[in-house]
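user: can you give me the structure for this one chain? tokens are fine.
assistant: on it. calling the predictor now.
[tool input]
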Amino acid sequence: MSEQINYGQLMHQAMRGLLAIVLRDVAERGLPGNHHFFITFETGADGVEIPDWLLERYPDEMTIVMQEWFANLVVTDDQFSVTLNFGDDEVAMVIPFDAIRTFVDPSVEFGLRFEAADEDGQTDDADSPMVELDEDEEDQGDAEIVSLDSFRK
């Protein structure tokens, strides 16, 4: 047993659970109002299933947009699958929640960032489960990132 509680890892698990809840609701009811999602994930992560041509184009990570058209959204406890339109091609993909690096809903200025986990499931910075977006990502929708720093003593 560890000598410390790994709050960073527990927070990441809770945030991934939040994503599962949100995506399940969208799968059942669709996207309400102006909501839409930018989801960035590691393309080479275990369990990611995307066509080879997308993996060649995005060997490290890619961002998908769930907005006006998507289909076959299925959410499990550890991943989701969805069909998106790339050009005129419908592409099915599977994305484990552990592969997700950022989730942004610019319509309500909400965003989450996940640190990469090592083989032991430890995050790069376990004391910082949520951090600000890079300047490039802020331009996608000027989302406000939830931060726990203001609650720490």
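assistant: here you go. The two ends are 26 Å apart (CA to CA). Strands lie at 37-42, 61-66, 71-75, 79-86, 89-96, 100-105, 110-113, 144-145.
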